[in-house]
Amino acid sequence: LNPAKCSFGVQAGKFIGFLLTHRGIEANPEKCQDIIDMRSPTSVKEVQQLTGE
């Protein structure tokens, strides 16, 4: 093991875009912010675009 790349005794850590905690694998809040900030669709066409239909 490379000591410079190892972290022991930490509460949480980021790994391949996810947050690893004692509760398990969670979505990274930094990555979720764009989805939270999206405006809601106002027409059927916008819903279809969002869902890929």
From TrEMBL:
It comes from the Eukaryota. This is Gag-pol polyprotein. It comes from Trifolium medium.
